[in-house]
Amino acid sequence: MALFPFILVKYDSYKKDPYLINHERIHIYQQIELLVLFFYLFYILHYLINLVRYRNHHKAYANIVFEREAFSMDHDISYLEKRKIFSWFKFL
Q: Where exactly are the transmembrane stretches of this chain (predicted)?
């Protein structure tokens, strides 16, 4: 879980998962772009809209715009080096 400026993991083994860490680092960049507070507000709002839309927690979570970017790009370890500001907007 990314809580600016930290990445929190449940198990020590997760610290060695480059894709999980990359996923969370993408969230850190998203949080910086939206001055942290607006990220969390938009994240929760988008989740609630998705929950009404899909009536399913997993689908609602997976379709949050920030998660869509992070899941799509977490296997590209060099993504953050080439990522443009507000790239999450393409995943709306």
A: 28-49
Domain boundaries of the chain, sorted by first residue: 16-91
Give 71's contacts (C-beta < 8 A, 6+ positions apart).
23, 62
Percent of the chain whose predicted confidence (pLDDT) is above 90? 100
Residue 5 preceded by cis peptide, ω within 30: yes
Length of the chain as a residue count: 92
pLDDT tens, position by position, 2-38: 999 999 999 999 999 999 999 999 999 999 999 999 9
